[in-house]
Amino acid sequence: MLDISLRKRLPGFNVEVDLSVDEELLVLFGPSGAGKSLVLKMISGIVEPDAGRVAVANETLFDSGIGVNLPMRMRKVGHLFQDYALFPHMTVSENIAYGIGGGNKDEARKKVGELITVMRLSGLEKRYPQELSGGQKQRTALARTLAAGPRVLLLDEPFSALDYQVREKLRADLLNIHRIYPITTVLVTHDLEEAFMLGKRIAVINNGTIEQAGTQEDVFYRPLTRNVARFMGVRNIFSGKVAALEGAHLVIDNPDIGMVKAPLPPGPALSPGTEVSFCIRPEEILVIRPDRVLGKVQDNILECMITGTVGRGLTTYSTWTAGGQYRQRRSFQFCA
Amino acid sequence: MDLFPLYITVKVSLTATVITVAVGLVLAWVMAKREFFGKSIVDVVIMQPLVIPPTVLGYYLLVAFGKSSWLGQFLSDGLGIELVFTWKGAVIAAFISSLPLFVKPARAALEGVGSELEDAARLLGKTELQVITTITLPLAWRGLFAGAVMAFARATGEFGATLMIAGNIPGLTQTLPIAIYDAVQAGDYATANLLVGIITLFSFTVLFIAGRFSRVRF
Q1: 3-state secondary structure of B156
Q2: pLDDT digit string (tens) for A103-147?
Q3: Would you give the DSSP letter of residue A312?
Q4: Where are the beta strands (DSSP E) in B24-65?
Q5: How far apart are CA A98 and CA A107, in angstroms?
Q6: Taking the alpha carbons of B108, B112, B114, B120 in that order, is the dihedral positive or negative?
Q7: What share of chain A is helix, strand, coil (3-state, %, to 5)?
Q8: Has residue A324 got a pLDDT over 70?
Q9: Which of A192, A291, B65, B197 has the highest count of CB atoms within 10 angstroms of its CB?
């Protein structure tokens, strides 16, 4: 269990993060420069927050209110750096054994052996970091971090330095390892695919603040802010005013598109006149030819004109111009 | 052939190098790893002996450690250490003038050990001292060794400041460089040639060793 509340003022950038993580793998997702790594550094103590609190399982690691700031070595926080920070003058086993405390050499050796097996590093024990591949380095670093018996695991873009193929394999490895060592874990990434593969719960950070934290489904299908929607790959985001409330739906007025019906979002109640953003995922747009009879579909029907198609991998994006009588110039994209 | 200058030179340089490395290591570490007010001024002060004329440096030392200064009186009356016109004075001169030659490469070597590696060690439960002995020093030792060799070479060749504070007393404070000067002044070219040969050979060896070790391996 990890509880954080962090405040840090930097030139032109403020971090304001409150988050609670159970014995789970939480993905901290956000664009570059959102403050993801900084949050991890404040948890592990590399960077001192201006104010706030960091607590692991009811032990306070940092609390500006009561003047607690545990030194890094006493925090028992495992921090996997983006480029692994392996000690270049030590072999794989020496690196792994480095953080094992206590005087019992046999036990330490056993632990190192176990981690070498779990991390598929057998045969590489005597190699130096510069003689390892990217994936092997990453697994060595993870083994070294786990060997010290951390209560919290922080992973800073652990796959960013690896090839695509290696990445796939190692993501699966990581989930496996997290099953074997179920430690509260925070994984930082700017890769959406990675976020969804690894985190049941995702916290979306932007510009130093958490814009939404929730389950995969929540974040993906019910983004709370325009930015979260944008990060989730939604391409059609519009602004409008609430025109009316109809039970579980609300009607939004957009000057270009017209009246649009949308399900009521969670959170505080909305009243007519409120400015809102609304969006639709490309794959949720249904294209109906003009000569087809409209069946059950009655809401949100727009007349559009295809202005172009853009191939993009397996998905084809078409740009449409929407509006009652093609009078509008606003365009949006969807998947056809 | 009087080989006393060779003996006293080795004695003075080795002693000075030990002090230089001990003091310089602390200075280099502080300069490399800590931020504090007035750091750039401290840097300028440490580097002074590189640019200041050795005779001026010797004059400073003479004033600082002479009988009329409180420091000189404290050392002589309190601790019984006489610096002026003794081999210990030559050690001080060699130490001060070789200090920047050690601190500069040592600082670079210590800075070269990234803070991320040290943070990784701290996060694995290590104390500051453990971080220094198991991570920082092992990774920086080549640069430190090269710096020590350079400092030793500088100490061996010290002339101006040594002459000012330790004087030129044959059999007591006359080091190799001073003996060479003396021999040339006296027209004793046989001695001068021999001593010059020794110093030249030594300098070549030192640069060769320093070059081999300063190559970064990690």
Answers
A1: helix
A2: 788 889 999 999 999 999 999 999 999 999 999 999 999 999 999
A3: E
A4: none
A5: 13
A6: negative
A7: 25, 35, 40
A8: no
A9: B65
Cβ-contact A306, A320 below 8 angstroms: yes
Q: B160 near B92, Cβ under 8 Å? A: no
Last residue of a domain, one of A174, A201, A229: A229
Q: Containing domain of residue A80, as a range?
A: 2-229
Q: Same structural domain for residues A301 and A164?
A: no
DSSP A223-283: -SSHHHHHHTT--EEEEEEEEEEETTEEEEEETTTEEEEEEPPSSS---TT-EEEEEE-GG
Task: State the smallest CA–CA distance between residue A80 and chain B in angstroms.
Answer: 8
- In chain A, DSSP finds a helix count (H) and a strand count (E) of 8, 18
pLDDT digits over A18-57, tens only?
Answer: 999 988 999 999 998 899 999 999 999 999 999 999 999 8
* Domain CATH code at residue A192: 3.40.50.300
**pLDDT tens, B175-184?**
999 999 999 9
**Are the C-beta atoms of residues A279 and A236 closer than 8 Å to each other?**
yes
Beta bridge partners of residue A17, listed in sequence order: A6
> What residue type is assigned to position B126 of the chain?
K
Interface test with A, best of B123, B126, B130, B136 (most A CBs within 10 A): B123
Count of the separate structural domains present in chain A:
2
For the record, the structure tokens of A307 come out as 């202005």
pTM of the full structure: 0.82
